[in-house]
Input
Amino acid sequence: MDANWIIEGLISYLGLIVLLTFHEFGHAWTAEKCGDDTARLQGRCSLNPVVHIDLIGTVLLPLMMIFLPFGVSRFMIGWAKPVPVNPYNLRNPRVDDILVSMAGPAMNLILAVALMALARVGLLIHLVPMTVVCWQFASLSLLLCFFNLIPIPPLDGSHVLRNLTGMSWEAYAKFAQFGFIGVIVVLQIPQVRLVLSLAVNGTLLLLATIFGVS
Output
């Protein structure tokens, strides 16, 4: 493992931290707008990465996927500490819970659009490294967007599934205690990684076409 590999890995990891921070901020901000200030009172409606770090999802898993031998493809993913939401504070619990859950992936989609716009600026001012970095981070942001739609706790798609199936919060909370194991197992399935790759690359190419980035 040479120095360039380590530097590139650390840059990717720092980008992941920033994107996860915005992701969780999106959840917390939306929850407050829907009537629940639990996240704000716990200091989670913040762009400070420290308050969102999860030992497994933000530290161990991403670093393993970057630096261990099986991470040689630089397929990197992770999650932050779930934003606390009290459903009894939400004005319309079922609809608002889905809105709060989807706010994270939506934030990543917005960031991908903004990053692709910056990539276009990099092309216009002939700053190729800027374009390359923005392209890479836009791709990572889209990966976080689609990854979080997987319906397994602690991922956001699981909240949508909970509402659609009528699962109680109590049952969901018990299932969520071990959900990260399911996430790690699912990521080992080639078909899942293929679908994620197709979704990310397809959306990335669409954005690149819209902004004239090639």
Notes: The chain is about 70% helix and 0% strand. The chain has one domain: 3-81+90-211. The chain has a mean pLDDT of 90. The CA atoms of residues 23 and 107 lie 6 Å apart.
